[in-house]
Amino acid sequence: MPKHKQFTDEDLFSLKLKNLWGYFKSESFAFWMICAYLFLEYVRPQSIIPALDILPWSQLSVLGAIVGAVFDKTVKWVGSAANKLLVLFLLTIIVSSISAYWPSISYKNLEHIYTWVIIYFLIISIVNTRQRFFIFFLVFLVASFKISLSLAITWAKRGFSFTGWGLMGPPGFFQNSGELAIQMVVYWPVALAMTLFLKPYLSKWMYRLGLAMPVTAWAVILGSSSRGGQLALAAQFASKYARKIFRPKILIAIAASAWLFWTVLPAEQKLRFSEMGEDKTSQQRLLYWQNGWDMMLDNPIFGVGYFNFIPYYETYYRDDILFTNAELPHNILVQVGTDAGFIGLGLYISIIIYAFLSMRSLSNEKISSVSLESKLASGFNFSLLGFLVAGQFVTVAYYPFLWIHLAMIVCLKSIASKRKVNLS
């Protein structure tokens, strides 16, 4: 069993490397491996440095976490309504694959969902204490900051100019500018929440470094050329400051931020907004959404089949393809609805509602023992809002955004519940 009782929460909150590393070294193999997975999946050093790309590092870290969890007595089952919803969603995807128009296509893509189910259960079972969550969450923040800082510098060196491809992340889930923008949209609210909570424990330069996380994330969103990501950012700001908007200081800050963002935004990107709904890309997406809805009405129970949208569209909606070939529907709700019907869509929306309500409840907690958890809970809901808005324009239902988010909020809720029970 790991021996780390000598490290208090305050020791870790100071972010002193000696304390963080000392705690991490004292932890279990399973915890090392799940942290390694998160770092490898988000930073992708094995893709950035070709010499490292000699083994399937991410898969090995997941396998290591599974093996470690089997022998780790501190790993406990965590009950949650999210568990049932996620398993039911997976079963629905499997049934939709069996009943699909092209089952072979569905079977080839099943790893895109069952992998997240495995990782979800590993995270909630292993990351089961406040200190473990704190370190795991820091890995998420540092990995995301590595991306946001490097790309913000790249955009600045480019003179904040526009390119058709925007900014590109490391090879993997965040390489495309649209998906990169979503990661920044998901990351900045929780990064800001964590930084503000830790302010009393940090040195001035560490606090300023923490504030650089959301600032560089905003820069990447603006430079990404992703209209969906930029709309999501606007929605997050509007929601976050809606109640304070008529305070003079807030009005001035919002006006200054809006002016700065609009000034920095390249002219070509402004033109893309003015053409929204009229350009060829927008017209194609509207056709995907309209015809996707028809697909769902024609196949209401289990949809046309998991990952069957493209072949079905090319077969039955050939006249509505404005480019060479059909693509995925560029909308998470249409994607899930056509993949798994209204049953799958209902479960997917239920997962989102659970995530939001559980964090809203936790964010209202006034107990000092769960102040960290309550502060982060509010940030997580702004992250979820950003994902939902941006997700209306890209096909990312089976990307890590929602599934890692779900795992972390289940951990957070479970940890907060245990702390309240222990102090009652």
Describe the model.
The chain is mainly α and 424 residues long. It has one domain. Helices cover 71% and strands 0% of the residues. The chain has helices at residues 9-13, 17-26, 29-43, 45-48, 57-71, 81-98, 103-109, 111-126, 130-157, 177-198, 204-223, 227-240, 248-264, 267-274, 280-298, 309-316, 332-363, 371-390, 400-423. Helix 9 crosses helix 11 (204-223). The longest helix is centred in the C-terminal third of the chain and has 32 residues, at 332-363. The two termini are 27 Å apart. 42% of the residues are buried.
Q: What is the averaged pLDDT score? A: 89
| Strand portion | under 5%
Radius of gyration, CA atoms, in whole angstroms: 22 Å
Which residues sit in consecutive blocks of at least 5 with pLDDT less than 50? Answer: none
- How do the helices and strands follow one another from N- to C-terminus? HHHHHHHHHHHHHHHHHHH
Tally of helical runs: 19
Terminal residue distance: 27 Å
Number of extended strands? 0
Global outline: globular
Structural class: mainly alpha
Provide the number of structural domains. 1
- Tell me about the biggest sheet? none
Characteristics of this structure?
single chain, 424 residues, mainly alpha, globular
Short overview:
This protein is an all-alpha fold. The chain has helices spanning 9-13, 17-26, 29-43, 45-48, 57-71, 81-98, 103-109, 111-126, 130-157, 177-198, 204-223, 227-240, 248-264, 267-274, 280-298, 309-316, 332-363, 371-390, 400-423. It has one domain (82-423).
Which helices and strands occur, and which strands form pairs?
Layout lengths: L8 H5 L3 H10 L2 H15 L1 H4 L8 H15 L9 H18 L4 H7 L1 H16 L3 H28 L19 H22 L5 H20 L3 H14 L7 H17 L2 H8 L5 H19 L10 H8 L15 H32 L7 H20 L9 H24 L1
Helix pairs in contact: 3-5, 3-9, 5-8, 6-7, 6-8, 6-17, 8-19, 9-11, 10-11, 10-12, 10-18, 12-18, 15-17, 17-18, 17-19, 18-19
